[in-house]
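Annotators were shown the component list below and the corresponding predicted structure, then asked to write short factual statements about the assembly.
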Amino acid sequence: MTQKKWFWALMAPLASVIFSIGLTSLILLLKGASPFGTFKVLWDFGSQGSNLVSEVNQTVAYYLAGVAAAIGFKMLLFNIGIDGQYRLAVFFAAVVGAQVHLPPVLHVLLIMTTAVVVGALWASIAGYLKVKRNISEVISNIMLNTIASGLITYLLQPTRLGYNLPGSNNSQTPPVPKSGWLPSFHIAGGNLYSYIFVAIAIGALYWVLLNRSVFGFNLRATGMSFRAARASGINAPRMIFITMAISGGIAGLTGIGEMMGNTHNYSLSFPNGYALTGLALALIGRSSPIGIAFAAFFWSFLEGAAPALDLYGVPVEIVTVMQAIIIISTVVSYELVKRINLLQQQRLVGAAAVESTTKEAVK
Amino acid sequence: MTKVIEIIGIGKKYPGVVANDNVNISIEGGSIHAIIGENGAGKSTLMKILFGLVKPDSGSIRVRGEELNLKSPQDAIAKGIGMVHQHFMLADNATVLENVILGSEPTGALGTIHYAAAREKLTEISQRYGLEIDPDQLVASLGVGERQRVEIAKVLFRGAEILILDEPTAVLVPQEVDELFSNLKGLTSNGLTIIFISHKLDEVLQIADDITVMRRGTTVANVHPKETSKKALAEYMIGGALPEPHPGESSRGSDKALKVEGVSFTDHDGRKVINELSLDIFSGEIVGLAGVEGNGQSELIELIMGLVKADSGSIEIVGLDASVATTRQIRDAGVGYIPQDRHRDGLLLGASLWENRVLGHQGTAPMADGLWVNKSAAKSDSERIVSEFDVRTPSINVAAHALSGGNQQKFIVGREMAGAPKVLIAAQPTRGVDVGAQAIIWNHLIEARRNGAAVLLVSADLDEIFKLSDRIAVIFRGEITNYLDPKKATPETLGMAMTGEKIA
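Structure shown to annotators:
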């Protein structure tokens, strides 16, 4: 049975990737481009050493956003506020990190803790509104994203927490001193952030907490049935609130790798838009820590390889089309697999029932 | 009288499962023909074949002598066969009329709906069969009994002359059952034929003109209600002697395990649903709580389980002040809870059986090991439940919703009995469960009592209340109005007490 489970868990995303490649090929053919050539260009450029390293760094950020979204999914929460939570978290982490001078390990820990706390606090506003006021977390989070943007722009003005470099209008926070930097590994001509270990740890923690701990059981139970959870003695509303906060806390870690490994400050040009990607990756990875990792790498690879298409004469947007097809076809194939599984189980149950009645009859 | 339907040698195989095998039934026009059998006996498959949802592998069906070859439910409807499903399929935010015509709207030349004609036809149907439905009422405002009548009207509107009713009483309270039965009599006296699927023997004996019993996918007996008994029917159904519960000598202890004192509770709508209610249960005692549904039973259970908090009064469970404690604390103090709605309150349908074993027990050993779920303990205890309670499942790794209702219920009862609870709240423990499973559940309730548990048995099945209870407490408008001795009281006196009369 377990073998079969694995088989189906792999089949669904694999089928959607193949489907997506097929459909994309069709589009390319219609545009008069060679599908094989296009994919070869993507592969060749994406798998170059230094590109691969930056793709892995990007994977780490996407991965954390994906895990943040996945925790929400387990509670049927759609945390579209990841964007606001993560930007506010990086911003405050950069501000706090620049203000203090601590021994290296403590400094790094302080920055990460700040990010987690800020992300969690920001998300818990939505959690509170959901639990106490019954306001959809989607609505409140979209609003909170906008508020976060405004807040950052306000605080980043030169008279407040930020400053402008001479001749630039890109407001930024003061630089974090070296004790607050994370080392990078020089591999294949690129800089691999050691932050990848943080992502691995978060993934492992996520799995263990969710699948092995009583807390995780309570979380999943509440997500599956609010009423059954309550009847079993779980404080279900509190569980929803906590889940939202945890999701925000992990979202807060999303941009820290880039900040501690590369920019060492927060500026208006810091990357954004992680919420939708995170949600999509959690969906494709089926909220599993391994699945999200594969999805995140695949995503980063496609995006990292895309610029080469311009030189080949194919629009870069073809990659976005591919991603979109993958998302849609994954949703469809998971639903199909779910139904097939249920049918199989019911058949087994039916067989067991007939078998035991027959046994009784023989008795 | 003529045979309206003849089912001859119907068989249907699914891979690995024989759902129907050599099913033979003939049904007379203008009669109520009951088909009974345990869960999994093949009733549903047969009905699906009759309604064109499933094609049989062998055999034939004749309607009024004509060979039937159904490809879809539309074919069945065209042949005058209609089905009233157990779970209603109505749109809440539409009116009765809109619901009835949905899918078969009488339309004019331009595709406009002839509401007037539809209303006239519906009113005519309602009057002829005594359905008493108002075409313009919103379905959302209707009670369960009325919704069912709308479903029946829907089928009649489409011109059905043969009605299949799948467990129609499963969702009804006793008075509604009586109303339904008089409606059904009205239908047959107008020449319609009714196929009545059930596993409630009392009802079948009361309403049916003919009874066919199914077991293991085939028809095993064809009897007239006047020439049979409940016991005989049950024995046909399970293929052996019917087990009877033997509560035996009183095992009542001297300590009150559950003490409810002067509790009042007001619901969302400001109705005082529990009114100064007091009820004590001693350890080793089963108290049956009898009452017409909606007299505060559900609220009393929720109060005891700490799911809602009382306005005033106190609840004490084995020394714990339950009026302030959380549900978790109450459960951890040794309270088992069999909820009346197993799908919504008792199970995580999408989770495996062993995970469902943990549900409700995740706070204490052996299911919890400190902060961690003890997976191996959960799995081994699930195996124990499956074998002790005869839960029919291929494995404890299948999801709960793959199991039939009776097997889900047996699993829940097994779970709540685990760890020798001091207090057991059993709400409708055998509702929707077949005779075999019922006997198993009854025996375990009696065993819990023998082991010193204080059991509150809330049931709409008065037979169950009489058979198991040491004392019967009657609840009426949120108060305990009477205590009866099940050995002395008769169903009649209990019935009177349930309508609020004081019995000395």
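Statements collected:
1. Chain B touches chain A through 54 residues (CB under 8 Å).
2. The CA atoms of residues 386 and 475 of chain B lie 35 Å apart.
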